[in-house]
Amino acid sequence: xxxxxxxxxxxxxxxxxxxxxxxxxxxxIVDNLSNSKPEVCNRIKEITGxxxxxxxxxLLNEAGLNQLFDNEVIExxxxxxxxxxxxxxxxxxxxxxxxNVTSTINLCKVMQAHQVNKLIFSSSATVYGQDGISPLxxxxxxxxxxxxxxxxxxxxxxxxxxxxxxxxxxITSLRYFNPIGAHQSGLIGEEPSGIPNNLLPxxxxxxxxxxxxxxxxxxxxDTPDGTGxxxxxxxxxxxxxxxxxxxxxxxxxxxxxxxxxxxKGCSVLDIISTFELVNQVSVPxxxxxxxxxxxxxxxxxxxxxxxxxxxxxxxTLEDMCRDSWNWQKKNPDGY
Length: 335
Ligand code: NAD
Ligand code: UFG
Hints:
The protein is of the alpha/beta class.
C-alpha cells in the first residue's frame, strides 16, 4: 500500500517524500512538472536510497488519474499539487481556480471511485484573510483577498462538504505558515522561477550575488521593529507534520484542520540579522514602501496540532537560515 503524493517533486512535497520514505512508507509521486524538475526524484534517491515511482501527469487529466489509481494500490493521498503565486493569481484567476479547484475535484472523484478515503490537503495561513489577529486559531472564520487564497478557502469548503456526505472519508487540511529552509544535505530545496516573491529565496539570491539588494517592504508596521512579522517554519518540520497527520487520520472521523507553524513571529529584520550571523554573509537591504496586500503580523496558534497530532516544530530560525543558505550555495542555478 502506497502513499500518493501529488505535486511531490515540488518544494514541500519532495521534503515530505524524503521523510515518508525514511519512516518506511512506500511513496508514489504524481506531478506535471509545471513548477519542478525530474531531477528531484534522483535527489530523493541520493538522500534515502530509494527512488520513488513517478508519474508525469496533470491532475486535470481525470482519465490519466483513473489509470494511475487502477495500476497502483493507494492507501492515502497527500495533495500538494497546485499553483501558489499570489500575484500571478490576480492576473490569471481562471488558471488558478482551474488548476487548484478543478484538479482537487478530479482527485476526489477518482479517489471515491477507487475507495481511497484518506486525504491530506495543503492549505495555507492565507485562508485567515487580513483581519485575523495573531495568534491565528483554527476556529476563526475564513476569508481571502486574492484568487490563490480563495482557491484554498473553496477547496477547504469542498473537502468539508465531501466528508459530511459519506462517513468513510477521512480528510485533513493543513494550514501552513511560512515554510523556509531545506534538507540539510543541500540536495533538495526551494527553486523559485524568475525573481523570487518570498523573503528567504530573495535573501539567498542577494547573499550569493544574483540580486543586488533586498527591498524590505515597509518599516512602519505596528510590530516591534516596524517590519512585517511572520511564522517561519522549517520545511522538514512541516514534512514531519504530514506524517503526524497521516497517523492521526487512522483514528479521525470526517474532516479536520490544523495549523502547522511554530507559533513564533519573526520580523524581516530578525531574519536578515540571523541569516547574516549564522552564515557569515552580508545581506544588503533598503527599506521601501509597503507591499500592497501585506499584513503587519501573522503567526499560528499551535495548540491544536500539539494536542491532537502530538506534533510541534523543533527547528530554530538559525537552522532554517543555515539550511536555506546551504541549499543555495550548493545549487546556485537550481537543480
Ligand atoms: P511547488 O510549486 O514547489 O510544488 C507544487 C508542485 O505541484 C509542483 O511540482 C508542480 O509541478 C505541481 N503541480 C502544479 N499543478 C499541477 C497539476 N495540475 N498536476 C500535477 N502537478 C501539478 O509548491 P510548494 O511550495 O511545494 O507548495 C505545495 C503546496 O503547499 C501548494 O498547494 C501550495 O499552495 C501550498 N502552500 C505553500 C506555501 C509556501 O509558502 N510554499 C504556503 C502555504 C501553502
Ligand atoms: N518581504 C520583504 N521583501 C521581500 C519579500 C518579502 O520585505 O522581497 C517581507 C514581506 O513584506 C513580509 C515577509 O517578508 O512581511 C514575508 O513575505 P513572503 O512573501 O515571504 O511571505 P508572505 O507571508 O507574504 O506569504 C507567504 C506565501 C503565501 C502564503 C503565506 C502564508 O507567499 O502564499 O505565506 O502561508 F499564503
